[in-house]
Design brief:
Blueprint lengths: L17 H10 L2 H5 L4 H4 L8 H18 L4
C-alpha cells in the first residue's frame, strides 16, 4: 500500500493521483515543510578554527620527542 514517508499515512490507490497528493502536501504537511531546514541555513555561519591550540599541541609533542633524543 502507498504510504507518505513524512507523516506515515497510508493511502488508497485512488489517493495516489497527483492532484490528491498535492492537496495532502498543502493541507497536512504545510507546517512540516515550512519548518524543515534547508541547505542554506546550515552554511550561514562560517565555522571557526582554533589554530593556536593545534600549534601549541604540535610544539609540545615536538619538545617531548626532542627531550627523549630518539630520532626516527
Amino acid at each position: 500500500m502507498p504510504m507518505c514517508l513524512l507523516c506515515q499515512r497510508v493511502f488508497t490507490n485512488d489517493a495516489m493521483k497527483r492532484s490528491k497528493m498535492k492537496v495532502h502536501f498543502e493541507r497536512v504537511l504545510k507546517e512540516k515543510i515550512r519548518n524543515q531546514p534547508n541547505l542554506k541555513s546550515f552554511f550561514k555561519a562560517p565555522g571557526t578554527v582554533d589554530y593556536e591550540g593545534g600549534l601549541k599541541a604540535s610544539y609540545t609533542i615536538s619538545l617531548k620527542i626532542a627531550n627523549k633524543e630518539i630520532y626516527y
